[in-house]
Amino acid sequence: MYIPKILFLSLFQLILLHLHLLLPPAAADPLYQICGSTGNYTANSTYQSNLNLILSSLAANASGGGAGFSEGTTGQTPNQVSGLALCRGDVNASACGSCLRSGTSDVLNICPYDRGAVIWYDECLIRYSNQHFLSSTDNSQQVYMWNTQNITYKPNVFDEMVTWFINTTAHQAVYNMTRRFATAEANYTAHISLYGLVQCVPDFTPADCWQCLQGLIGEMPKWFNGKQGGRILGVWCNLRYEVYSFFAGAPSLRLVLPAVSAPAPAPVVHTPVFVPAREEGKKKNVTATVLAIALPLATALVLVSAICICFWRKRSAIKQPLLYETTAEEIRSVDSLLIDLPTLRAATGNFDEVNKLGEGGFGAVYKGILHDGHEIAVKRLSTSSFFSSSIPCPELLDSLL
Ligand SMILES: *[C@@H]1O[C@H](CO)[C@@H](O)[C@H](O)[C@H]1NC(C)=O
Ligand SMILES: *[C@@H]1O[C@H](CO)[C@@H](O)[C@H](O)[C@H]1NC(C)=O
Ligand SMILES: *[C@@H]1O[C@H](CO)[C@@H](O)[C@H](O)[C@H]1NC(C)=O
Ligand SMILES: *[C@@H]1O[C@H](CO)[C@@H](O)[C@H](O)[C@H]1NC(C)=O
Ligand SMILES: *[C@@H]1O[C@H](CO)[C@@H](O)[C@H](O)[C@H]1NC(C)=O
Ligand SMILES: *[C@@H]1O[C@H](CO)[C@@H](O)[C@H](O)[C@H]1NC(C)=O
Ligand SMILES: *[C@@H]1O[C@H](CO)[C@@H](O)[C@H](O)[C@H]1NC(C)=O
Ligand SMILES: *[C@@H]1O[C@H](CO)[C@@H](O)[C@H](O)[C@H]1NC(C)=O
């Protein structure tokens, strides 16, 4: 029973293979098209012959010479036709030509007798119109497409990275690439890579191209939140990103994504508490009691901590005076405790005996008044102590005095 089955399969495959060889390669389907709204032309009209003329010339000019781009106008008003053809920047001349040739014949069937149309393919774009769109930079005819798969690993971070990634690629395309086209690659995680592509028509000025791409980048958050890929197709510029490689050749940029910005502090969650009206008085009392206990406790804690920090700082300063200079973090936390010596001198009248409050185990305590009127008490370490004058440790005691 096996043999006939295998024979049947082989025969079937053979037929498929032959069909494949006999049929011309199927032209790629358009990604999208927008048929015009500027009226119809009639069969055999001057407009139609102008249109045919420009479409064939666009395809020939864009694929010849490796430009990948062509635009022009033919005929006289009211039968004048303007046209634009653009191939993706990484597509070679022969692939560009075949995309445009099949596209120009497709679009006449897809948008029959329309005076204008835009049609997007994966590898090329064709636009024509009876309007003079070539002199404008209006990119409002746009198509958004996205990969339906969501990114599961930190989608918010991913979105932020993608924006940075495409923006950086856009900067490269605009200012560093003569054809206003750039591709890029970056590692998001050890297992997820990012691939991006941005393009403007090559005859755009850097300023126009940058503005066009910024317009698209600004749209990204509206459409691509958490998506593994997305593209925005315009007439004058376009962009795309995916987590797989979709362009030919090596990327023009290999980027290292910026470090993830520090996570925002955990939001304060205000859990709504339902308190029945008749218990409100009771609740106030409870709150008052809690405050009565908690406030002094908290104050005491803060004071003890402050004193502990002062002691710790003194001790470690003596043992390891350079510790604070190792990281910015620690320098900052020390700064917030430190009032510099000149300020202390000014506040205490240069440690005037008049301001002396008493003598403690580590040295004398002086009363001082800061510029802002705060009363402080300053403990000056006894001069026999090694770090006495270089590391004063003021304790703000105005709450106690
Ligand atoms: C143009 O032709 C299409 C069909 O070919 C028709 O549906 C449409 O109404 C026409 N538009 C105008 C403005 O004549
Ligand atoms: C357009 O011209 C072709 C041949 O050139 C002809 O067969 C066709 O009937 C013409 N159509 C109209 C609407 O005149
Ligand atoms: C195509 O190139 C030819 C020869 O350089 C030129 O005359 C024609 O205007 C071009 N057409 C377009 C649409 O660019
Ligand atoms: C052009 O690119 C296509 C694939 O996109 C490839 O099959 C073809 O060999 C390339 N042609 C040349 C001349 O490099
Ligand atoms: C992706 O997430 C959206 C909502 O954020 C959800 O509607 C959609 O079904 C998800 N797609 C997949 C393939 O999981
Ligand atoms: C893109 O980068 C430019 C600087 O190169 C910056 O001004 C702009 O805000 C960035 N745009 C986004 C959406 O991040
Ligand atoms: C442009 O290229 C130069 C070197 O060719 C490089 O130093 C510079 O960073 C590039 N600029 C951008 C925006 O990529
Ligand atoms: C991504 O990581 C791989 C290996 O981990 C490395 O070979 C590759 O160069 C990296 N790509 C970029 C764009 O940094």
Spatial ordering of strands, largest sheet: 6-9-10-8-7-11
What is the CA-CA span between the terminal residues? 104 Å
Q: Note the run of SSEs as H and E.
A: HEHEEHEEEHEEHEEEHHHEEE
Outline: elongated
| Category from helices, strands and their pairing | alpha+beta
- What integer value in Å does the Rg equal? 37 Å
What fraction of the residues are assigned to beta strands by DSSP? 15-25%
CATH architecture of the largest domain: 2-Layer Sandwich
Q: What is the arithmetic mean of pLDDT?
A: 74
Question: What name goes with the CATH superfamily of the largest domain?
Answer: Gnk2 domain, C-X8-C-X2-C motif
- CATH fold name of the largest domain: Killer Toxin P4, Chain A
Count the DSSP helices.
Answer: 8
> What is the helical fraction, as a range of percent?
25-40%
Q: How many separate domains make up the residues?
A: 3
Q: Which sheet architecture does the biggest sheet show?
A: 6 strands, mixed
